[in-house]
Prior knowledge:
alpha/beta
Amino acid sequence: MRVKFICSFALVFLLITAYTTSAQTASIKKKYTNSLLYAGIEVGSKGVKLSVVEIGKNAKSQGAFNIVKDTSVNTDFISFTPTAYFSTLSAFATLYQVALNEYQIPAKSIYTVVSSGVKMQAEKEKRIKSVDSLIASFKYRINEPERKVEIVDVAEEARLSHLGIVPDEGRYNTFLIDIGSGNTKGGYFPSGNTNNFKLFQLNWGTKSVANAAEKKCDESDKTLANYNRQLFRVLASAEQSDINYAINTSGAYALSDNIAFSGGISWAVATLIFPEYTDRSVIVVTFDEVQRFTERVYKDYASLSDIALTKDSRLTPAQKAAITKSVRTVHKVFDQRSLMAGSALLLKLMRQFASLYETKQFYLVKNGQVGWVSAYVDESLFN
């Protein structure tokens, strides 16, 4: 099952050769014949993301998907400041023009959404009007008053992610957990059909865990050692009060053989644990490997630099270049403390499925952020 599942994941994405192209690229090298390009633009908690996906004519049956572009602009929209608002609007409109003009994607093939994380935070702070205003201003700026910009709720986002990330072969025995910056969501299909989705959600994410640990640090002691102590306390409390309950009530343990993690921290951990696998979009890991990684981030962070990770003499120059690029990208997104917080949260979630009596298979999905795009396209084309 392990080998077949890996192959199926790779088949769905065919992201094994995923790479990031320049926004100024005039010509696009497609991977498939008779394929089309689609784009998804998402306003998220931290910023605006653009994903351009090539979909072959056999996408439904053979998983002919290929990432052409995957980029983001950090704008911190959920701070709801005027600066964040206008930065987000500018990024939203600019990335739309990139998809439309640079990649020559028809407007009808560009999907635009606002994430569930933004929706939840806006509702919490009574800022839904800011979201509505952003959407209206975006439509005006791109001169498309009838454009659909869906504000996705958490259940729909989790369902789309599962449909876009998990292959059909593992559809009904895989529990998908997407670890975001502000929250964690996911779920599975318990009844053998995609009309019944069991939602899993947790009000903890990489950023919220890191923030909670920072707040517990005394002003006179902002050292890494103290941050690590406070991080342990935050997660110990979260495990007892929230994580255990959320996993137990989900009912996923008994019904799911495969536990797949997506989100930024999953990408980062997968990249740094196995830097040589730059061409793989899905990485198989064990609980022990992630546990050792969390200790390494704290105690030996320098060993995770691009210089340290390319010292192996067996690596070719091309491999070293690819590793350097991917590792540097991770470190631009995550600093040491956020890596500590995210990997520790990942480990706490994995612990719920690590048992002496039954072995679950753990997967880290690197490119899960484009899962919803694949699902959108799949549903609009084939349903």
